[in-house]
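SAMPLE LOG
Freezer: B-3
Tube label: C17
Construct: single chain, 305 aa
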Amino acid sequence: MQINSLFNYGVVIILFTGLLAISCSREDSRIEEERVKLEQYLQEQGYTGIEPTSSGLYHVVIEDGTGEIPSRSDFVNIEFVAKLVDGTVFETSDEDVASQHNILRADKLYGPAKFNLEQLGIQGLREGIMLMKEGGSSRLIIPSNLAFGSADLGIIPPYSTLIYDVDLLDVIADPAEHEKNLLEQFIEDNDIDVSPTQSGLYYIEKEPGEGNLPGDNKSVTINFKGYLLDGRLFDKSSAANPVVLNTSATDIIPGFIEGIRLMRKGGKARFIIPWNIGYGAGGSLDGIIPPYSTLIFDVELIEIG
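STRUCTURE (predicted):
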């Protein structure tokens, strides 16, 4: 009995070893295939004289910047187009480019992307941005071992080298101070003469409305449009489909609730909501609102329930 068990165990080991060898062979084949495609791409683009970094990243300077070089802890603002070596564009911050390549998404806010380099998931992209200067443009050629490796992401096959064309717009060492400066400039440029509330909300009444303020735990019906400080529209309701919410809701950003509670039925107002009473240092969970973002809402209060 023991001899048979040992024999069966030995067969399992042999089979497992054989399967492992086949798996490794397939992986080696895919890696070699990627290497050949990368070398062909480098040759076609005239990049054969460019040496990779020690990690394997290729950094091609398109236009050298004149500003700061970001550190790993900094936030950055970038514009980018990302593609495979065969030219397939799979992601971009440019809405027109997304439309041209049939990858336009309704759930994405196009325009400059702001994020913390520390939290960037693509190792090669982070490394490449940290080689750039503010105001510069680069092409980052990122082998799969610095990107998504063997993962199959649909439009990005396993073992895919990625090409990122990046414009580094801003290097932001202190995002809270940076946003504060942008808000102050916006207030000045738009001749806004109202004082903020204690929380920091700017409440700008457009039409006064009538009746009482909503108070606690009241149902209100509103229409609204929401913008970032740079004017990008990120959300809106419609006259045919207004939004109903509660004035004591805890799942809505506090600056918005504060503004609603200052309105009367039929009134219209603009809320300018600093990041700390908006979506905070992390941005919105769906990724649409970037970290440390001032928000602007144009709101009409239709009904108080």
